């Protein structure tokens, strides 16, 4: 499995970068997890949009879905130029009807509801879902393949259920939208310290801090996490890849 950080900023992208998007690949299967602002542009550093095999959306906040519309346009234009039929299945929850229906576009992008209590098989991956604590319905995702387990918290305040959900994962991609000691909970987000405590308690091998804030010194987030958790801690950055074989 190969994980590429396409975008990692919380709320909106900094110049020439993107908000949330991760490319998850194995055996020639390309899964895009969230499609925030700037993701379509950044994605083209790695693959062409029409090479995607599936899109999975955690929730319908703009920093996670802003580029779905332009991805649809890219598929439309590439289909016309190549003369080949393109169909991209887009998986989202159905608890926000207008958000979910925005994933449907002509025959090119097909909105499919994931059932949060049921595993979802996509190519070499099996996904499972956990409801998060956020201002709108949102789901964390656990992705398992033959050689790795990767868990993404999506957007959430701290909740103890993350520990069981993320248990023994190779990689935890945890949102850390606030610094240690701040009130992240009322914003529906986590601090570096809370993200690190999940990594520690779930016996995670590698913690990637993401959904990063637009204030403070980001290296401080890493230092704060390292005080709680002994494993490897990294800050998400554009184009960072983590490969399992
Ligand atoms: Zn967000
Ligand atoms: Zn959100």
Automatic annotation (TrEMBL):
Q: Keywords for this entry? A: Zinc
Molecular function as annotated in GO:
3'-tRNA processing endoribonuclease activity
**Which range is the signal sequence, renumbered to this chain?**
none
Domain Metallo-beta-lactamase as annotated: residue spans = 18-211
Q: Known InterPro entries for this protein?
A: Metallo-B-lactamas (IPR001279), RibonucZ/Hydroxyglut_hydro (IPR036866)
* Domain of life per record: Bacteria
Q: Does the keyword Glycosyltransferase apply?
A: no
Q: Name one Pfam family in it.
A: Lactamase_B_2
- The protein's name: Metallo-beta-lactamase domain-containing protein
């Amino acid at each position: 499995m190969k994980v590429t950080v396409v975008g990692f900023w919380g709320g909106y992208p900094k110049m020439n970068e993107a908000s949330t998007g991760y490319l998850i690949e194995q055996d020639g299967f390309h899964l895009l997890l969230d499609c925030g602002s700037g993701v379509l542009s950044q994605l083209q550093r790695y693959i062409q949009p029409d090479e995607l095999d599936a899109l999975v959306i955690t929730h319908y906040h703009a920093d996670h879905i802003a580029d779905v519309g332009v991805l649809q346009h890219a598929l439309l234009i590439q289909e016309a130029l190549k003369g080949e039929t393109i169909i991209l299945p887009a998986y989202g929850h159905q608890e926000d009807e207008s958000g979910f229906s925005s994933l449907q576009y002509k025959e090119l992008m097909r909105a499919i509801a994931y059932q949060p209590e049921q595993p979802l098989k996509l190519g070499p991956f099996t996904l499972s879902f956990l409801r998060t604590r956020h201002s709108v319905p949102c789901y964390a995702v656990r992705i398992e393949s033959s050689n790795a387990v990767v868990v993404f918290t999506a957007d959430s305040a701290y909740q103890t259920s993350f520990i069981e959900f993320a248990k023994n994962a190779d990689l935890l991609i945890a949102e850390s939208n606030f610094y240690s000691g701040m009130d992240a909970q009322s914003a529906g987000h986590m601090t570096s310290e809370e993200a690190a405590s999940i990594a520690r308690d779930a016996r995670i091998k590698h913690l990637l801090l993401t959904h990063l804030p637009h204030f403070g010194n980001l290296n401080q987030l890493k230092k704060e996490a390292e005080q709680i958790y002994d494993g490897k801690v990294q800050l998400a950055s554009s184009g960072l890849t983590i490969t399992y074989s």
